[in-house]
C-alpha cells in the first residue's frame, strides 16, 4: 500500500471559469482507489439548480455524502423561502457546513459555479474547512491543483463567449489531468449561460 | 485493514452473477473452506461481504434484517437502487463514529432497473457498475474483465469467464 494523503485517496480534478455572462465547470470522470481505477463515470459536478452547479473533489465518500446533504439543505431552503438560492448564498451555506466540522472535517474541496439572478457569473472555491475564495477568473481543486493552476493561468482570458469558454476549459482540464496519475479517464464539462446550459463529455487519455 | 478475501460480480443479460471465495483465514491460518459470504437480502437481491471478520457478518445481518423489516412495514420490497443507498447511508453515518471495515457488492434484479451490481467500499463510496471486485483478487479481476467482459453477456458466457483458469485460481 502506498502512503497517500486522504485527499488523494480517490483522485479528482474540478475546474470552474468565468466567461462573458457565462460560467463553466468541469470535472474528470475517474473513481479510483489509491491509483487503481474502479469506474470511469463518476462525475464530480452536480446540478443543484438550473444555473447553479457544485463541484466536489477529495474523498469520494464525502463527495457523495456532502452532495446529498447539500441537496437536502437546498430543497429545505426552497421550501422555506419559496425561491431558488443565489450562488453566493449557497457558497456561504457550504462554508458553514464545512466549518461546523472544523475538528473532524469532510475531506472535500468544493467549487461553486453559477449565474445569480442578474445573470452575473459567480465562482467560488473552498478548502476542506470552508475558507472561501471568489477570484475574478477561475477556480481549481483536486489532487493536482498545481497543474490546473498552470494551464489556467496560461490559457485563460477574460470575457470569453460560451463556445470559447468551453474550449479553453476543456483544454486546461485535459492537459492537467494528463499530468495527474490519479485523475482522468475522461472529463465532463458544463457551460451555464442565461439562456440555459449544455454539458458535454470529453474522451481524454484513458489512463 | 485485514487481508481481504476475493469477491466479485458481473452484470449479464437479465442477470447479475455474484461470486465469493469460501475461505476463512487469518494470516497464514486457513480456518475453513466452506464459508458462505453471500447474504440474501430477499428473492431478488444478495450481498457479498468481505473485510474485518466480525464486522462483515454483523453489518450484513444488520442490513438484511432492517430491509426485511422495511418490506414487512411497507409491503413492497425496496428496489436495488434504494437498498444500495440505504446500505451506504448506514455505513457513512457510522464512518466517523465506529466504522464498519466491510467491503461489499450488492447484486440485484428489478423490473424497472433490470440487473444491477453496486460496489460499496469500507469508506462508503458507492458506485453502480457492470463488473466489480474486492480484495487482492481485484488487482487481477478488473484487468481480466476489462479484456473478457462484454455488456449483455449470456449466463453460459459469464460462467466461462468465471471458470477461466486465472480467475478460478483466485478463488481457492
Tally the helices of chain B.
5
Q: Please, how many helices of chain A? A: 4
| CA-atom Rg of chain A in angstroms | 16 Å
Count the E strands of chain A: 12
Tell me about the biggest sheet of chain B?
A: 5 strands, antiparallel
Order of helices and strands of chain B: EEEEEEHHEEEEHHH
In whole angstroms, how far apart are the ends of chain B? 21 Å
Q: Your description of this structure?
A:
The complex is a heterodimer of chains A (207) and B (172). Chain A is of the alpha+beta class. Chain A has helices at 60-81, 87-100, 145-155, 162-178, and strands at 13-18, 23-28, 31-33, 36-39, 45-49, 52-58, 108-115, 121-126, 132-133, 138-142, 187-193, 196-202. In chain A, the strands form three sheets. Chain A has a five-stranded antiparallel beta sheet with strand order 10-1-2-11-12, with helices on one face. A five-stranded antiparallel beta sheet of chain A has the order 5-6-7-8-9, covered by helices on one side. Chain A has a two-stranded antiparallel sheet with strand order 3-4. In chain A, strand 1 and strand 2 form a beta hairpin. The longest helix of chain A is centred in the middle third of the chain and has 22 residues, at 60-81. In chain B, strand 7 (102-110) and strand 8 (114-120) form a beta hairpin. The radius of gyration of chain B is 16 Å and the shape is globular. Chain B has 172 residues and is an alpha+beta fold. In chain B, the strands form three sheets. In chain B, strands 5-6-7-8-9 form a five-stranded antiparallel beta sheet, with helices on one face. A three-stranded antiparallel beta sheet of chain B has the order 2-1-10, covered by helices on one side. Chain B has helices at 53-74, 80-95, 138-148, 155-162, 165-170, and strands at residues 7-11, 16-20, 24-26, 29-32, 38-42, 45-51, 102-110, 114-120, 126-129, 131-134. The longest helix of chain B has 22 residues, at 53-74. Classes of the chains: A alpha+beta (207), B alpha+beta (172). The interface between A and B is medium-sized, with 15 and 16 residues.
